User: Which sequence fits this backbone?
């Protein structure tokens, strides 16, 4: 089973939580994309209904793909990330899930060795097999899927059982910003942390862990643990664990935080600058 096939199967169990609380994303502007060489990344394809020349819609997708990768980079390599003893991981996962979560996140980034490589690398080539489209396809698979008409649906993905899944970007996705700054955020993860890039990451894998990790790093602040009603990236951990036991490429996670004054702070400074660029 291909990596993409497997991780999309795993992700399918958590799509229902995508809309529980939108996910965060620091600014992923064209300027930042150029600085981090995101143009070299293997991005998903843009399909029908997404006009890459429309600055209010389609033109925002490619930067959002870059933001999703940056969230992953913080989740894994930030000092409050997967290799730390930060309590953030425990907000979403059991301790013994860490290796599986890390393996999936690294795979999505193309297995980089450090933060710099993650930000400048090409990412997983399998991401190029996904098509993001703006055309809603409710009930295409003969089930009860209401598509974008389902309450709080921002994006949803179909075709987990093949190598070329399709992610539908609903109109509600475009109400979310492309960038945020620390002053926009409260003390607890809520919809205020949501951006288009975070919604993209949630279609790849669990995104809340990455969100909390990155913003804790950038803002040098600990956020209150989300409640079950707000967020549950780990609600379906048991299903994911079953899949990952069969294939190392299967487990996903949420966000990873970074809260120190060293290499990660340097990345955080770059992130803040990029917000200003916008």
Assistant:
């Amino acid at each position: 089973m291909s990596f993409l096939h497997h991780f999309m199967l795993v992700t399918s169990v958590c799509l229902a939580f995508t809309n529980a609380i939108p996910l965060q994303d620091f600014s992923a502007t064209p300027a930042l994309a150029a600085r981090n060489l995101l143009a070299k990344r293997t991005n998903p394809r843009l399909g029908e209904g997404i006009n890459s020349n429309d600055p209010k819609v389609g033109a925002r997708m490619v930067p959002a793909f870059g933001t999703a990768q940056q969230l992953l980079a913080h989740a894994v390599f930030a000092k409050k990330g997967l290799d730390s003893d930060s309590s953030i991981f425990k907000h979403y996962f059991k301790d013994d899930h860490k290796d599986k979560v890390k393996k999936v996140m690294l795979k999505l980034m193309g297995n980089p060795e450090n933060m710099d490589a993650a930000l400048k690398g090409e990412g997983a080539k399998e991401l190029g097999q996904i098509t993001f489209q703006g055309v809603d396809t409710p009930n295409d698979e003969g089930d009860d899927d209401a598509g974008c008409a389902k309450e709080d649906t921002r994006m949803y993905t179909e075709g987990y059982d093949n190598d070329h899944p399709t992610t539908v970007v609903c109109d509600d996705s475009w109400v979310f910003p492309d960038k945020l700054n620390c002053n926009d955020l409260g003390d607890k993860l809520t919809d205020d942390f949501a951006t288009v890039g975070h919604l993209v990451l949630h279609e790849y894998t669990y995104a809340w862990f990455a969100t909390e990790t990155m913003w804790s790093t950038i803002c040098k602040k600990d956020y209150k643990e989300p409640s079950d009603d707000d967020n549950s990236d780990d609600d379906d951990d048991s299903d994911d664990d079953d899949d990952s036991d069969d294939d190392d490429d299967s487990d996903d996670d949420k966000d990873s935080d970074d809260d120190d004054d060293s290499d990660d702070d340097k990345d955080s400074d770059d992130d803040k600058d990029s917000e200003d660029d916008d």
Notes: The chain is about 35% helix and 5% strand. Confidence is low (pLDDT under 50) at residues 1-39, 234-278. The CA atoms of residues 76 and 83 lie 7 Å apart.
